[in-house]
Amino acid sequence: NILKTLDELIDKLKNNPTDLAGMDALTAKLDDGSQQIANAQVTNGTRITRLASMASLLYNSNNTIQSVIGNVQNADYAKLGIVLQQQELAFNATLSTTAKIGQMSLLDYM
Q1: Which of 25, 71, 87, 108 has the most CB atoms within 10 Å of its CB?
Q2: Where are the alpha helices (DSSP H) in the chain?
C-alpha cells in the first residue's frame, strides 16, 4: 500500500530522522509500488487500445451490413427479373447447343 508506506516514511522522518536503514527500506517499498502502478498503466493502456480497435471494427462492420441491407431493400425487381430471364435464355441456348454437338458423330462431318 503506497499511501501507508508514505505515512510510515513521514512518521520516520518526524520521529526518527537518523534511521537511514528504515527510510531506505520504505523508499524501496515506494519504488516497488511505483513499478506496480507503471505496470498497471501499461496493461490498461493496451486494453484501451484494443477496445478502440474493436470499436472501430464494429463501426465498420455495421456500416457494411447497413450497406448490404440497403442494396437488397432498394433492388429494382423489374430489372432483376429481366436480367434473370436473359440469363435463363442464354443457359437454355447453351444446353441446346451442347446437346446438338453431343449427338454428332464423325460421319456427320464427312
Answers
A1: 25
A2: 2-15, 20-73, 77-103, 106-109
User: Would you give the DSSP letter of residue 17?
Assistant: T
- Provide the Cα torsion 10, 16, 18, 24; round to 10°: -40
Residue keyed to cell 516514511: 9
What is the distance between the alpha carbons of residues 101 and 86, in angstroms, rounded to a whole number? Answer: 23
The pLDDT tens digits of the residues spanning 36-80 come to 999 999 999 999 999 999 999 999 999 999 999 888 888 888 898
* Per-residue pLDDT at 55: 96
What single-letter amino acid sits at 45? G
Cell of 14: 518526524
Cell numbers 454437338 label which residue? Answer: 101
Q: Contact 13/23 with Cβ under 8 angstroms?
A: yes
- Three-state SS at 104: coil
| Long-range contact pairs involving 60-68 (C-beta distance under 8 Å, separation at least 24) | none
